[in-house]
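Exercise 7.
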Amino acid sequence: MVDLQKTVPNLIIDLRYASNNNFTGLRMYPVNTDHTFLRKSPALALAAAAKELKSKNLGFKVWDAYRPYHVTEKFWELIHDERYVANPAKGSGHNRGIAVDLTLYDLSSGKEINMPTGFDDFSEAAHHGQSLGDVEKTNNRELLRSIMEKYGFIRFETEWWHYYWPGSDRFEVLDIPFEKLKKRKHAAKG
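Solution. The predicted structure, written as tokens, is:
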């Protein structure tokens, strides 16, 4: 596993599940969680995408990436809907360290650019391809999609912010605490 803060240039990390500012209204990660992780291949791809974005005066803001398996179990207790929450029987891309929830922000101001919805919006407005009636939000969603797909990620159709690396069956489900990952120099192969 690779620490995104040390790998991706101009990255802002705002781990929503380390606060109560998320769909559960509860803190799901330890309060001091300030690092997040991906497997090596998607982390390096995200870093390359960030370098290209810099030429557009944009950067990535990450809301979630690696998620310990026990948190997915808690999510499933709250929302039994695979359009928005992974079924723990299958595990998730987040549990495997190959999925990331993110948006774009302006490097000059530090402000997020306008997107179709906020994070963890479980409405059709968050779906890719949804007609928005707002050219700016549509263009921004498509900019994020195009840069992520250019660097090998696959979009999740019901969440404009969620992208994952192909070949999830090659990666095991992990339930490693953040602090343990933060202390390890090399966790899992990726």
